[in-house]
Amino acid sequence: MSSTAEQESATPLPEHAEGDPEGAGTRTTPRAADSPPVWPGAPVPLGARFRTGPGGVTGTNFALWAGGAEAVDLCLFDDDGHETRVTLTELTHEVWHGFVPGVRPGRRYGYRVHGRWDPWTGARWNPAKLLLDPYARAVDGEFALPPEVYGHVRDWPQQHVADTVRDDRDSAPYVPKGVVVQDEDDWADDQRPKTPWADSVIYELHVRGFTRRHPGVPPELRGTYAGLAHPAAIDHLVKLGVTAVELLPVHQFAHEDHLLRRGLRNYWGYNSIGYFAPHAAYASAGTTGGQVGEFKRMVRALHAAGIEVILDVVYNHTAEAGELGPTLSLKGIDNRGYYRLQEDARRYADYTGCGNTLHVVQPHVLRLITDSLRYWVTEMGVDGFRFDLAAALARSMHDVDMLSPFLAVIAQDPVLRRVKLIAEPWDVGSGGYQVGAFPPLWTEWNDRYRGAVRDFWRGALPDVREMGYRLSGSSDLYAWGGRRPYASVNFVTAHDGYTLRDLVSYERKHNEANGEGNRDGSDDNRSWNCGTEGETADEDVLALRRRQLRNLMTTLLLSTGVPMLVAGDEMGRTQGGNNNAYCQDNETSWVDWGLLDEPGWRDLFELTARLIELRHRHPVLRRRAFFSGRARSADGIRDLAWFTARGEEMTAADWYAPASTLGMYLSGRDIPGRDERGEPVVDDSFLAVLHAGGEPVVFTLPGVPWAERYEVVVDTSHERQGEAAELLAGAEVSVPARTVLLLKVRS
Questions:
Q1: Which CATH class is domain 199-445?
Q2: What's the average model confidence in pLDDT over 395-422?
Q3: Hey, what CATH topology would domain 47-180 get?
Q4: Which residues does the annotation mark as catalytic?
Q5: For residues 529 and 539, is the Cβ–Cβ distance under 8 A?
Q6: What radius of gyration, in Å, describes the C-alpha atoms of the chain?
């Protein structure tokens, strides 16, 4: 702690028990005698940018939007932690700015922002709190959240007014600092894969958890960006055949206070505080700027392997929580300008379940988000984004609005409209569930697909109508406004919930290790434990579970739309029944690579890779347009046809009747569109038979004109796929209980 900070520290007095509208304690007005000169500089770009200034002098330009502030101090820290403060006197369009000669890359910094302390009107300025630059491109240090980092007195006896009592203790010793970063790298040698949406297979993974236990990655690189870039990690992705990795949040994030008090940490990272900075804890190259170059090298390595990088981003809320949360950045810069507040401006409008919601309607907030997105595309090389709780971003003043400023800006932005955009199409507010409602530029996580597939394979669907829609691209949700089948990102599991193995092993969540009395996590898991809860030595139960895993994986990869897998599901990763492992930064969440040495799980990996390769090879499995269901030739064959177990085309009555068996015929000769040379797209035709019943069923294979013969491509009743067998059209085939048969049509 610097000497000036010691002089400014003040503890609120007990007589302020009911709050102090004038602000408790003394106002901080520091000035250091050894302050460096500060030149006017420029208001753009925002953030800290090292450059050559007037007269060829090198230094850093600092610019901070702080609309309602009265003054802004730039705080520079040397290697010993000594703080030097300079006042930014230039104010242009609500941006405080200045150029400081001699400040070079690697220098740590933060801000202290002066203004009124009046929580009743939403004003929460407190210059005793060192604030992280929202545009900081690297962050050094970690948020520990002691009482000093709260703008109010966190432990005030009367908690109902605690947020109104200002805490004047200096937070600088306890918070991370931004880092000035060298601008470099124009990506001239990078080759983006630019995989078309219809050809994409997404693999959701956690940067740390994916390599933390990988035996082929050097120990010092495990759990880092460099670890993910290592050939041993990339080799697995290439063998599997995925086209994109979707990284759980890599923006700098903070751990919640309630987790730190229980000795836990936020593992998933949905608690962002720095939208331009790669999370420092995932870097092996140091945290004073090295994390930026390491992230770029990871992206380059993945691109070289033909794999795109999609970031899971959290722009709906920040780590500052509600009125009782810490003051880390935006709350202290301009609370009213950045966050949605209720009519009682002491309180935050919370559409996210995390305490606050960014006020995206505000131009400067929208600018922060879009500047961040463009930065990650143009300077960090990423290929797309998955937006957490995207409905919260699409809200205008209150309601979700598909003509909202956020969606409008994205639609016209020349950089962002060209990358992959995935919406998690809901939030926790009223009217927040918006599956199928996002505009044509967007794809969506389709949780109706997840629910239908889970219910079908556990025998809980009343009929097969829902399953038919989900298998064929969810036209009921997306066939409007020019949207295509790839608007549906199909998934059975995600980071949030059970792993695929746990889905067939547990019917009750087991989240005791989270320390919340097993109250956290969803109770609607739509899972089936195959007769025994949890781990078992019963070989019959284990064999059934592995078959169910093959059924679920095969269904996912045969469905029209964009499939998303979760890291480790292809080899039987388990979390021991924990369906909310957001705070389990340990073996519970990390991928167990030893599973590949076990024959049963290795077989699952081989089947998954085979299915993905089959998908890549056959355009009929990754259509770019919805099925018409109409015959285009005299023989009556349609691009999509549905069959009962009797081998007859389904009638309207069949769709409404209870059933556990469904036959789906995909015609390869009726694929709309043309290839890159303008030629018609022609492929093999397939018949998929999905049987979820607990007893075998006799299925009559459709005869002429649909087929003369069939070749068995996949049979999930077997652990390993054997030699291709041929079956005659019209034959009655005994399909084992709980099995998928994929048959290629032979004429």
A1: alpha beta
A2: 93
A3: Immunoglobulin-like (2.60.40)
A4: 388, 424
A5: no
A6: 28
